[in-house]
Amino acid sequence: MSVISKISSGSFKTEGMIVAPCSMRTLSAITHSMSDNLLTRAADVVLKDRRRLVLMPREAPLHLGHCKLMYEAAQLGAIIAPPMPAFYNRPETIDEIINHSVGRVLELFDIDLGILKRWEGHKAEKSRAVALQSAGEKPEQPNGKRLVTQTKEI
What we know:
The chain is built from five helices and three strands; from the N terminus they run E-H-H-E-H-E-H-H. By secondary structure, it is an alpha/beta fold.
């Protein structure tokens, strides 16, 4: 593959680059500065110019060599962002799981598509607990057990 392209030059300005999915072969080439194709050359340029390089490795499970490559890429300045599902936002569909990974990575470039469900802590659960307590009921914990609350005057 030819590396003669605008993106293979540092004079071509970009905000950075996302490699998704990032195979272990590509991760290895980027980590070891093997610019033998346009993808790895463009990634090398992004790193040398201190721009954001986000790598979304796709392998699982990982062996020590994979972990070492990710560690070394991070030392060079890459951001390692495996597309791991987050369950704290309680996704209901595959699209929600995918959108979360995509949304998190795009936010690294200040791009907000409005597709992320934001973590609000336990506000919703606490608000519900307060409302139930006001009504004389004991709120349930996520495991279905009743929440025991105690108050103590100080």
